[in-house]
């Protein structure tokens, strides 16, 4: 890719030492970092590389695409693009013995979840103990362990600096406390190049992500600072950024631009309106000359994303026009769907055992679902549900009647019997239907619907089918389903197409770029402005909306309920 470099960019490339480049969405932070890296290649000794650290695999893919545009194949080989997790895992694997005198093993999330639910006490203390005494590190401790290593061992810092004379740190504004310790330790020995946009700070609800991170960096490290400001190369002819900035600053009137289209719906026309909006966005992009458009459908919550996935998978009619099904991928929290799938699998096992034992297994699986939910985002409801279902499982196992309604409904359903015929797809639906029919379990039903997105349907169906053929039942289905979904989850992480339609929540869209974006607000959930946790002017929600809007290169379609709060006051 040939770019005319302006004076500011030339100065960035010429600047030695640590660098902080600020800039809005699409201002070219990633791009200039790679140009800067390109300038360093000539000076690299054999074995030396430039490290590009980012947060998510999705962001990494985006950086790799940009590498392809800018760097030659041999230059690309000299850049290592990694998530913090991957970097830390390698560090712990190679040098973790220095920490506690024993080599390090890893506790994967599925396994951690099980241990956590079985552990009676403060898990955050226990997992630290496991790390210190057994060398067993769970994912969340990778960064802390690596920071301990780098802070404690100058020789190791030297080793890392020897391999990576330059480290680029993406999305620096969202760096958490332990990641910051890593960057600070490495800044003593190697050049760090931090990229940041304070306005794209969307994770600062987390305790360990300090809103003052940029100032902390400036205080700790002598760093040259450049600001690309509001430059916008992602959608240079588009009013998208102006629109997004007006939303961010709550400054009316909203700029009128053909690049942002707003559509509203009445409650009963939600599905057809969303479906039409997505189809319209694709065809508008094609009309604008984008041959194979990529369109992201974004909303605030996974729960709405799950509904949207179902909507796009069914035909609708709008103004007498038939809207055909839209093939799409979904980026979502697969762990929760997997946990809900295990509940369904446990129902498939009902006919194979005693009532008390079968029902207790299902109730424990439900408790497991809520424990996971609570582990991902702590809420009183999730914690309380986990406790109630655990209690119900204990009662049922003793042959006593459970107290909660949903558990009573399950007991009744069990007594009525589930009719399974040895046809896994049909039987799966029968078992899943039970969750749909019990109001308190509808959340699990919504999650389990997403299981088809694992693309594991074939593996699941054939696994279950084999079970049935071998034993005339689905005995062991819970373990089978768990294993298959865990495998698929690892594979799915690597699969991501560059074209077509993809659904995800706005947090997950961070760092990504698409031709078109359809932003969807629900009428009863997933409002654009989070009125439960925020006061007007909803600064946090506005930052998130800006991230969503600015993911689009060419076109944004916004779908909102008729009576929604205006985007600017
Ligand atoms: N100097 C430039 N001239 C022309 N196009 C550019 C320039 N810099 C970047 N671009 C293009 O602009 C788009 C956005 O660039 P980039 O991803 O580097 O921005 P960013 O600041 O990292 O964005 P974000 O923070 O939103 O992820 C890319 O398509 C890139 O090719």
TrEMBL record:
The cross-references to InterPro entries, in alphabetical order and at most eight, read: DNA_helicase_UvrD/REP, P-loop_NTPase, UvrD-like_ATP-bd, UvrD-like_helicase_C
Q: Which domain of life is it from?
A: Bacteria
GO terms (molecular function) for this protein are: ATP binding; DNA binding; DNA helicase activity; hydrolase activity
Q: What is this protein called?
A: DNA helicase-2 / ATP-dependent DNA helicase PcrA
- Renumbered to this chain, the signal peptide range is none
Q: Which Gene3D superfamilies match?
A: P-loop containing nucleotide triphosphate hydrolases (3.40.50.300), PCRA, domain 4 (1.10.486.10)
Q: Which UniProt keywords apply?
A: ATP-binding, Helicase, Hydrolase, Nucleotide-binding
**In the UniProt record, does the keyword ATP-binding occur?**
yes
Positions bound to ATP: 23-30
Q: Which residues form the UvrD-like helicase ATP-binding domain?
A: 2-236
Instruction: Extract the PROSITE patterns matched here.
Output: UVRD_HELICASE_ATP_BIND (PS51198)
One Pfam family name is UvrD_C_2
């Amino acid at each position: 890719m040939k770019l005319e470099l302006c004076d500011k960019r030339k100065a960035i490339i010429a600047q030695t030492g640590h660098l902080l480049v600020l800039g809005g969405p699409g201002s070219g932070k990633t791009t200039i970092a790679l140009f800067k890296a390109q300038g360093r290649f000539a000076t690299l000794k054999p074995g030396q590389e430039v490290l590009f650290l980012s947060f998510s695999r999705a962001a990494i893919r985006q950086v790799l695409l940009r590498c392809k545009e800018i760097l030659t194949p041999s230059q690309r080989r000299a850049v290592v693009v990694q998530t913090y997790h991957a970097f830390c895992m390698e560090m712990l694997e190679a040098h973790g013995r220095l920490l506690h005198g024993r080599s390090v093993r890893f506790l994967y999330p599925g396994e951690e979840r099980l241990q956590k639910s079985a552990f009676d006490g403060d898990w955050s203390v226990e997992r630290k103990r496991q790390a210190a005494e057994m060398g067993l590190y769970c994912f969340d401790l990778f960064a802390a362990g690596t920071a301990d290593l780098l802070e404690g061992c100058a020789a190791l810092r030297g080793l890392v600096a020897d391999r990576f004379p330059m480290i680029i740190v993406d999305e620096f504004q969202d760096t958490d406390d332990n990641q910051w310790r890593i960057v600070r330790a490495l800044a003593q020995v190697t050049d760090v190049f931090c990229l940041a946009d304070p306005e794209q700070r969307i994770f600062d609800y987390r305790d360990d992500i300090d809103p003052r991170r940029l100032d902390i960096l400036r205080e700790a490290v002598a760093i040259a600072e450049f600001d690309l400001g509001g430059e916008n190369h992602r959608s240079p002819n588009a009013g998208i950024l102006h629109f997004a900035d007006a939303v961010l600053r709550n400054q009316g009137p909203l700029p009128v631009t053909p690049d942002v289209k707003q559509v509203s719906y009445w409650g009963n026309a939600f599905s057809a309106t969303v479906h039409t909006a997505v189809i319209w966005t694709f065809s508008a992009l094609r009309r604008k000359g984008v041959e194979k458009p990529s369109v992201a459908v974004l909303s605030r919550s996974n729960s709405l994303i799950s509904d949207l996935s179902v909507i796009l998978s069914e035909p609708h009619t709008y103004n007498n026009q038939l809207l055909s099904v839209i093939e799409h991928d979904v980026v979502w929290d697969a762990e929760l769907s997997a946990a809900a799938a295990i509940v369904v699998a446990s129902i498939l096992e009902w006919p194979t055992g005693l009532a008390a034992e079968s029902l207790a297994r299902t109730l424990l699986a439900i408790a497991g679902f809520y424990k996971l939910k609570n582990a991902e985002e702590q809420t009183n409801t999730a914690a309380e549900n986990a406790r109630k279902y655990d209690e119900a499982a204990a009662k049922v196992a003793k042959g006593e009647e459970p107290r909660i309604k949903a558990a009573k409904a399950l007991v009744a359903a069990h007594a009525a019997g589930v009719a399974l015929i040895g046809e896994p797809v049909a039987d799966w639906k029968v078992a899943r239907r039970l969750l749909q029919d019990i109001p308190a379990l509808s959340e699990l039903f919504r999650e389990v619907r997403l299981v088809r997105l694992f693309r594991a349907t074939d593996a699941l169906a054939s696994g279950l089918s084999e079970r049935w053929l071998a034993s005339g039942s689905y005995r062991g289905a819970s373990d089978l389903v768990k294993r298959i979904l865990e495998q698929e989850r690892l594979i799915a992480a690597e699969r991501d197409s560059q074209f077509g339609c993809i659904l995800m929540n706005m947090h997950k869209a961070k760092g990504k770029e698409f031709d078109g974006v359809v932003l969807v607000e629900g009428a009863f959930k997933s409002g654009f402005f989070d009125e439960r946790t925020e006061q007007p002017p909803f600064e946090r929600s506005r930052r998130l909306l800006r991230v969503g809007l600015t993911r689009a290169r060419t076109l944004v379609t916004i779908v909102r309920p008729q009576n929604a709060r205006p985007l600017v006051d």
